[in-house]
Amino acid sequence: MLPTAEVHCPYCGEPLELLLDVSSGTQRYIEDCQVCCRPINVTASVDEDGAVHVDVAAEDEA
Description:
Elements lengths: L3 E5 L6 E5 L7 E6 L6 E8 L5 E7 L4
Antiparallel strand pairs: 1-2, 3-4, 4-5
């Protein structure tokens, strides 16, 4: 089962739940907001203890 993370859209502020596949290390991808449909840059990584970290940014902040 893939881990999930709740983040907030950097444009409209709505909460979003993302499914994360960090099985091959750090992932960077674009996910469209489910509310305002704008592109969100997502970076997901796992630290040495197995904790998942997620950062989101607007397209012009990447």
